[in-house]
Automatic annotation (TrEMBL):
It holds the Pfam family ABC1. The keyword Transferase applies. This is AarF/ABC1/UbiB kinase family protein. GO terms for molecular function: kinase activity. It comes from the Bacteria. It comes from Luteolibacter pohnpeiensis. PANTHER family: AARF DOMAIN-CONTAINING PROTEIN KINASE 1, ABC1 FAMILY PROTEIN. Residues 92-316 form the ABC1 atypical kinase-like domain. Keywords: Kinase, Transferase.
Amino acid sequence: MSGQRSIPKSKVARAASLAATGAKIGVNYLKYKGRSGMGDPNARASFHDETAIDTYKAFSKLKGGPLKVAQMLSLDQNLMPDQYIREFSKAQYTAPPLSYPLVVRSFQREFGKKPTEIFDEFSTEAVAGASIGQVHKARKNGKDYAVKVQYPGVADSLDSDLRIVRPLAMALFKLDAETIDPYLGEVKKRLLEETDYAHELRRSVELSKATAEIENVRFPTYYPELSRDKILTMDWIDGLHVDQFAKTDASQEERNQIGQSLWDFYHHQIHELRIFHADPHAGNFIVKDGQLWVLDFGCVKALEPDFYQDYFALMACYQHARESQLDELLERLTLFKVGESVEERNFLRPWIRESIELLGRPFWQEEFDFSDATYLREIFEFGERAKVDPQLQRAQRGRGNPEALYLNRAYFGLYNLEGMLRAKIRISMPGFLKDVA
């Protein structure tokens, strides 16, 4: 596999690439109208199939902002048809790689040397790729390393990329500014952090130490002397990604152990540290010798104290039927808008109640069995109903605290991993939830 040989860097070249994608979408739409006019029942599905592939292909060539937008939008399954979710989720860790000559150039810029002048061995093909960079395997003095190499120009083109992607995404997914702007704002913040590998190295070391007390959870060692602003080197960990481990004939006890480690890891970071690993997909976790290894702290989210208290207090209020406190909390979390009609709020109440009940259900049991597919099926079916309800789509525009984006993502991502493992886990509630229980 030769890999991508170049990334468009100038604003004109990147805009032209997205304009070409818009033209392809226009052609796809004309074909859709023709098919639907002839009574083809599969016309809409075919349009979305073709357009999802074309859009992801264009975004993946540009890397950076466009690919991060794809990754972010794929996490909220209520925003777009399933075809886009399937394609865009590839941005998590299977994005098309850059060719080796571009990697060599990155090393020469950062170190003044080629990879093979620093390491004894260096893989010419990436072993994984995502929106910001790709990973290569290297060897030095008999030791294996994972080397993350950032795509060239990602940080420099961020603002112009997001300005170009915004109208395309709004038109394609029928989103308004109130809905998409919080996503783009979060994309910009996270990208600015994720493109600073020196910051990621410091944070990875700090969070690894702060989470070291969690039983059965391990972290790679990071190597500042083999890292630079756009290159990050850590231990290479052999093992199985969580989704691969879940497909083995592992015993229920082994599954439970890894599932418990995942739960304890997130519980500690969210409720004790108030800063957490916000990228809970299977590619960031490896199972080796019965232990859970956490690989990547590129995407981390700190929780504002007021938001944290309101978010979990809302969960407790629903659980214990404290109706008198609900409206105030919903307003503070911007799920309710000040001055809106009683009718609007009454329409939203059952949707909000169901979503919070689903999210919080594991918290109120001493042990939760993720091997029962009923729970995850309920979450999926709720999302499907929400996605096709036009009144809800209109009503939820401009609602919700952007802070919740990553916290919801963390929990539903965690639940998905637990479901893959079919794990039975012991639940520990946050302290202040125990106080109100």
